[in-house]
Amino acid sequence: MCTVTFIPLNKRILLTSNRDEKHWRAAASIPEAYPAQTGKIIFPKDGDAGGTWFAVHENGNAVVFLNGGFIKHVPQPPYRKSRGLVLLNLIDHDSPYQAFQEIQLEDIEPFTAVIWDEGKLFECRWDGREKHPLPLAADIPHIWSSATLYDQEVVIKRRNWFNEWLEEHPYPTQVEILDFHQFTGDGDQHNDLMMNRDGKVFTVSVTSALIGEGSIIFEYVDVREAKTTERNFPIINASIKA
Q1: Does 240 have pLDDT greater than 80?
Q2: Is it true that domain 3-234 has CATH number 3.60.60.10?
Q3: Counting Cβ atoms within 10 Å, is residue 128 exposed (0-12), middle (13-18) or buried (19+)?
Q4: What is residue 70's predicted lDDT score, i.e. its pLDDT?
Q5: Most buried of 38, 147, 219, 237 (most Cβ within 10 A)?
């Protein structure tokens, strides 16, 4: 839930996320399709609360979470619900963006949601008091870094890495964006994309979804197990028009 990239590729999009977590958190399961009220939802399931940080609806909509809103906050548990379960509430809706506008978020820890909704891109932040929905240009790449782990100087440095990488990879493949998420940095393990802060907080997985042209291709890298899993799911009632 800590580094996310969005890349448009003609009739497809690439969404990729690094999950940086505390060492004591249980491992997540590989992406699977689970039944929900509005159709099947595909996501890696969190081993603790059963939610997720990354989900794609079978119609092609998607939601990815990052920890924190705009600034690093002091956690104030107990919270009413896990953010990973809030994400599932958003994606299990005809319009995840509308769901964000409607959902009650009092007593929910701050988060940033990257929402892909019927071919439109939104950045939706909850700062613990107010919602901050923002439409974004869907025809250009974007990168986000969690406000809870990275200060503005590091956020800018990571954005520069991304822009430099895009100059060399203007039409990246899913394998190439996975490489970017795993091997980019300047040797500072605290702030490289594959981060490790003294074994207490570190990157545990990388999840990537290639969405469009009738399919959703998931690549899931379990860093702790050094194992990559690929899953392919059909898009049903597509929200991405060919």
Answers
A1: no
A2: yes
A3: middle
A4: 87
A5: 147
